[in-house]
């Protein structure tokens, strides 16, 4: 899932789940919305990305390239080293600013109470 929010200067994109070939149908619409907002700074929150392939990287690269052409910048926040590696392999890591200080909030698992599997008689 991809959520978009905007302030007067920044567009924030929060990605949850996979950013890959299976999700590519939504990329053009999201890119058009982000570009249409015309904010100088695009922040991509990747704290909840489970997996990203080269298709997901190409989507992020297209956002960064569009922003750079308008004189803006794209920041990756909470990106896992494996995701940065995918972008680096694509030769586009220099299109992004990396937020090294951001710490993702831990995802808490629901409280699970263990029960006795033995039926009572």
Automatic annotation (TrEMBL):
Residues 1-84 form the STAS domain. Coiled coil: none annotated. Pfam families: STAS. This is Anti-sigma factor antagonist.
């Amino acid at each position: 899932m991809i959520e978009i929010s905007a302030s007067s200067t920044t567009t924030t994109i929060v990605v949850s789940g996979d950013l890959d070939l299976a999700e590519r149908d939504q990329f053009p619409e999201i890119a058009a919305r982000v570009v249409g907002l015309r904010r100088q700074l695009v922040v991509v929150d990747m704290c909840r990305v489970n997996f990203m392939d080269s298709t997901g990287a190409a989507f992020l690269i297209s956002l960064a390239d569009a922003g750079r052409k308008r004189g803006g910048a794209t920041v990756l926040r909470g990106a896992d080293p494996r995701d940065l590696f995918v972008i680096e392999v694509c030769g586009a890591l220099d299109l992004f600013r990396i937020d090294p200080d951001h710490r993702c909030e831990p995802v808490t698992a629901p409280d699970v109470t263990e029960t006795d599997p033995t039926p009572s008689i």
